[in-house]
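FORM 12-B: Structure-to-Sequence Request
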């Protein structure tokens, strides 16, 4: 376990927390006036190695994201932050160490942003205990973590899904080599097919995509596989097939549908559903997050290839029109 302390006076600023992978939707901006939930699960933290995080901290890599309730010993400084419905961090760190007054963190809870407290890596000190963190194996994750259903009660898609699919879409387009990709019907088609048809040219030589993972083998050119929520590492197929990662909480639902297990509230149910559950709402057309797609694609080495750079430039000019 880990705690973070003020680099100035040494005061402890957090409860004990364990490190997990940075969620793919960490920097997502969703809608206008739309309230989002908490980015990090209680008792966890994630480090962003890039120069991301709130605008006030973008000059430093290594910002630390935590659930707001896991931070103590720091006080909110009002009047230093621009906001619409809450705090967005635009005016600099807005939380000071309660003991010495040193600016240590930025609280973000504005609409359209995921709620989190971001620690400034230059203002805090990380203290790890001697016990190594326990990493759950795939079997434990599958048994204990059923995933996040894609449908909200109002029929909109879960915002995290729009970010996770967008990130995987970038990897998938790069893995295609510029060839068309055919996808299986169901949730995979609902989330990937339209964008793939817009981004990749039609024609012969199409590659196939299938959901695969632990105890879920597949025969396809490209496999959609889970990312471990703690380490961020993708599951690796044993036979060396091309693998495209997707957030575990999305993969778990896709895998359940492929395995024809009931997924209450999944929007597109498999052949069998729990009859005690209300019918899932009618979902709107899926829209992958254009910003997440571009940010992910920009970090891939394949972007040096002219054909992929042309796709990147096309989406950057008009993300919504290019993807749909």
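FORM 12-B RESPONSE
SEQUENCE OUT:
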């Amino acid at each position: 376990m880990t705690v973070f302390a003020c680099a100035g006076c040494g005061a402890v600023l957090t409860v004990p927390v364990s490190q997990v992978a940075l969620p793919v939707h960490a920097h997502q901006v969703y809608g206008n006036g739309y309230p989002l939930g908490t980015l990090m699960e209680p008792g966890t933290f994630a480090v962003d190695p890039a120069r991301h995080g709130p605008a006030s901290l973008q000059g430093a890599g290594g910002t630390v994201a935590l659930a707001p309730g896991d931070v103590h010993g720091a006080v909110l400084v009002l009047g230093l932050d621009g906001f619409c419905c809450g705090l967005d961090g635009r005016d600099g760190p807005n939380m000071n160490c309660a003991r010495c007054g040193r600016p240590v963190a930025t609280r973000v809870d504005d609409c359209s942003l995921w709620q989190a407290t971001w620690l400034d890596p230059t203002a805090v000190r990380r203290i790890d205990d001697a016990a190594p963190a326990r990493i759950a194996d795939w079997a434990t994750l599958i048994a204990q973590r059923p995933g996040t259903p894609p449908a909200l009660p109002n029929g909109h898609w879960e915002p995290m899904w729009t970010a996770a699919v967008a990130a995987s879409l970038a990897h998938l387009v790069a893995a295609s080599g510029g060839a068309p990709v055919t996808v299986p019907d169901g949730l995979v088609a609902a989330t990937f097919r339209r964008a793939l048809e817009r981004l990749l040219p039609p024609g012969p030589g199409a590659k196939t995509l299938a959901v695969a993972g632990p105890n879920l083998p597949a025969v396809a050119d490209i496999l959609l596989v889970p990312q471990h929520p703690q380490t961020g590492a993708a599951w690796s197929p044993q036979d060396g097939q091309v693998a495209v990662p997707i957030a575990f909480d999305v993969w778990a639902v896709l895998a359940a549908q492929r395995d024809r297990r009931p997924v209450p509230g999944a929007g597109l149910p498999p052949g069998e559903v729990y009859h005690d559950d209300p019918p899932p709402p009618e979902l709107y057309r899926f829209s992958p997050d254009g910003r997440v797609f571009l940010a992910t694609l920009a970090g891939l080495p394949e972007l040096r290839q002219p054909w992929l750079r042309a796709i990147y430039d096309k989406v950057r000019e008009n993300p919504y029109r290019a993807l749909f």
